[in-house]
Amino acid sequence: MLMSAADYRESLRQYRPRVFVDGRRIDSVADEPALAPGINAVGVTYDFALRPEHAVLMTARQGTSGKTVNRMLHINETSTDLLYKLEAVRLLCRESGCAQRYLTHDALNAIFQATRRADDADGGDRHQRFLAYLHDVQDRDLTLGVAMTDAKGDRALRPGAQANPDVYVHITERRPDGIVIRGTKAIVTGAPYMHEFLVMPCRTMTAEDAAFAVCCAVPVDAEGVTIVARPAGRPGEAAAKFSATYGQSTGVVLFDDVFVPWDRVFLAGEHAEAGFLTTSYATHHRHSCIGARAGFGDLLIGAGLMMIEANGLDPDRHGHIRDAMVDLIKIVEGFFACGVAASVYGMKDPAGSIMPDTVFANVGKLLLATQIYDMHRLAHYVSGGLIVALPGPEEDHNPETRASLSAVLAGRPDIPAERRLEVARLMEDLTASGQGGWYSLISLHGGGSPEAMKREIWRNYPLADRTEVVERLLDRGVLAEGAGRVSSQPGRCCVTGCQVPEPAGR
């Protein structure tokens, strides 16, 4: 069943999570103004799936059940699936800034792979347990929070060596009917208004860390779960032209001896598979982040053009403005192109799903993580200083100042001053407010910090192929003979070394 945004909001009333926002206990998440922008943003993923014009991108046929499901809950099977997911995430984030629900998608795809790998290695029914859970989530069209990033404590120590073991979520007890977990997940996007949490490890594990190698599903209102969150966006602020409507809360989630029945446990001590789960999720999620920040880039490009117009400038005649806009477009479409390449060169997993190419996905995420600040700078450059110098929106209704401000703060005579101020406040909201800083920080560290991406690129890039090519040319002594060859392995991509796929949609 595909829900609407209204259905989603109503479904939240069936849960009674223990949630605190700004020191207040929240009685009803669905009716809390401080969380409304986050619920609105997640709601976009529901309503867009019901629109016929978005059906191709926003829905998919789940191969393991044959049912039509929301794209954000689908297990990818082809390169086309990866491309459609990338485009769907861009579409959603162009509307909402951050739709959150693509995290659900990324986690489900990674767990699908990891449970199959664990069963292939050791036997068992982890994969079947997960499939049963997956189909239930798809049938009910749920939104799942990804409880992955642990508090971590002393970063120099592994999980098992921490003075306080609760800085990582870990298994404290195994029972015939399930496990008991406790610990802290420090950054869970959308935590208050999720239906359930997917608890996942956030780093590779050793045998000594087996108690911390846990992956399971926990209802948001399970006994022992406490959520301490920040407001979503900038609710109620008149100057928040965007984030008063759309935003995301982030929360710390405390697990205090939470019981999880076995049918919701997917890994419990399998440290090798837990490490694979972590890196697999990272690749899926970095691929999605590319689409998300491209959608955010679309907002900056659109707002930048509107500010240029309102200021009375013409990019065709003012080269410095045109150049800055081209630089902004180059950044956005540059990292998005990496997402397209990661989709086209996706690799089939033994589980039967498809994985974005690791190198291209990490290169794209690394580009956007480090260039988000350039995106802001360029948007500021083309917009002018009005975005931080303009008076507050209260003056728009002040009879003593409104007329004077309208007269002097107008740009082009055919564009009302009020319109220019609206666009300026939108740009401020996106780039120069607390919410704008949130977008920068989540772009830099969300899905892993740049160092993690660099390590994955170094670990997966076919370095040996490059030295092999040079050694072969040197051994021949005639560079010209090998000039037309781009890969030492026929049928493999000359950039990443991955298998060149059949045409999309195979």
Question: What do you see in this structure?
Answer:
The protein is α+β, with helices and mostly antiparallel strands. It is 47% helix and 14% strand. Strands 1, 2, 6, 7, 8, 11 and 12 form a seven-stranded mixed sheet that branches. A hairpin with a 5-residue loop joins strand 14 and strand 15 (354-355). The protein is globular, with a radius of gyration of 24 Å. Residues 482-490 have low confidence and may be disordered.
Features:
4-stranded mixed beta sheet; 506 residues; globular; 15 helices
Q: Summarize this, please?
A:
The protein has 506 residues and is of the alpha+beta class. It contains 15 helices and 15 strands.
Order of helices and strands: HEEHHEEHHHEEEEEEEEEHHEEHHHHHHH
Q: Helix share of residues? A: 40-55%
Estimated share of beta-strand residues: 5-15%
Roughly how many Å apart are the termini? 27 Å
Structural class: alpha+beta
Indicate the low-confidence ranges by residue numbers.
Answer: 482-490
Number of helices: 15
Backbone shape: globular
Average pLDDT reading: 91
Largest sheet: 7 strands, mixed
Strand element count: 15
